[in-house]
């Protein structure tokens, strides 16, 4: 079978897998941002009972392999009565993992906002929460865009790991085609090109967003 004929036949299945890859990446990014913001705030508040659990969580998620986390959530938790579908387990694990990295990006960005901004807000009568919400966070998001975009690009590649729990994303779709055609090299290269293309697209969106936020800040 010619390579182009092979890729033509594989395209519909790989495109479906690519859809699941994007679903996993974007869903996990949203979940990771929500939890990551909570963790970032918990890491900067002066209350140790809030700060230390958040710090331990971030250290744990960043210090253990994502593959092990997937196994714990999908294969380990059912032993204590907590069970998820493969799709839900994949999104949940990726969200939990991404939240640790995003929290550090957001925390660094929040701390990067000048102390004068806080002082000026307090002098206007704003509370800590109001200052964080209306003054600091909008500026921090602009600072954190590059690192958050890098996390999203990493998520796109990390979705390949959820194939181990039978989620038919791009990598598992590719493996299924290989099992029938016995042509691994061109199909793995094609999958790599799809991941690369998705990364390039999101990098372009990142640069466009940075320019837009930069103009808005001027």
UniProtKB/TrEMBL annotation:
It is a multi-pass membrane protein. It comes from the Bacteria. Residues 18-206 form the ABC transmembrane type-1 domain. Its main location: membrane. This is Amino acid ABC transporter permease. SUPFAM superfamilies: MetI-like. The keyword Transmembrane applies. Belongs to the binding-protein-dependent transport system permease family. HisMQ subfamily. Keywords: Amino-acid transport, Cell membrane, Membrane, Transmembrane, Transmembrane helix, Transport. InterPro entries: AA_ABC_transptr_permease_3TM, ArtM/GltK/GlnP/TcyL/YhdX-like, MetI-like, MetI-like_sf. It is found in: Cell inner membrane; Cell membrane. The keyword Cytoplasm does not apply. Pfam families: BPD_transp_1. The chain crosses the membrane at residues 20-42, 54-77, 185-205.
């Amino acid at each position: 079978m010619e390579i182009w004929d092979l890729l033509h036949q594989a395209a519909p299945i790989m495109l479906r897998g690519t859809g699941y890859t994007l679903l996993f990446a974007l869903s996990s990014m949203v979940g990771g941002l929500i939890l990551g913001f909570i963790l970032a705030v918990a890491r900067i508040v002066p209350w140790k009972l809030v700060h230390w659990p958040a710090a331990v969580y971030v250290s744990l998620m960043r210090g253990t392999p994502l593959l092990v986390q997937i196994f714990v959530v999908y294969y380990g938790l059912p032993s204590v009565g907590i069970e998820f579908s493969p799709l839900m387990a994949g999104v949940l694990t990726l969200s939990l993992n991404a939240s640790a990295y995003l929290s550090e990006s957001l925390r660094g960005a929040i701390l990067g906002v000048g102390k004068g901004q806080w002082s000026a807000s307090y002098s206007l009568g704003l509370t800590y929460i109001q200052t964080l919400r209306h003054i600091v966070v909008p500026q921090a998001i602009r600072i954190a865009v590059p690192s958050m975009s890098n996390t999203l690009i990493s998520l796109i590649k990390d979705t390949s790991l959820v194939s181990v729990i039978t989620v038919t994303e791009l990598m598992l779709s590719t493996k299924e085609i290989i099992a029938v055609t016995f042509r691994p090299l061109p199909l793995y290269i094609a999958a790599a090109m799809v991941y690369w293309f998705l990364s390039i697209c999101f990098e372009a969106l990142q640069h466009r967003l940075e320019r837009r936020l930069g103009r808005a800040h001027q």
